[in-house]
Amino acid sequence: MRLTTKDGRRITGVRLNEDTFTTQVMDLNGGLHSFFKADLKELQRDTGKSPMPSFRGALSASEVDDLVAYLVSLRGKQ
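Above: the chain sequence. Below: its structure as tokens.
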């Protein structure tokens, strides 16, 4: 979500909860914010988007295969 308060503060984060009158958001630093919708100038829901940066191209195909094999090997270990 991206929202702007009537006093100009801008918050970008992940929606934790929302009802008819309020919304609660965790910002990208882990801070929690709660707002009455009436106090917001703008409220945008970025459905299908993630605040996490893309790691596309950070690993080669063989490195991805190795990582997946490692994660599968952890299954059942506790």
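The chain has a mean pLDDT of 89.
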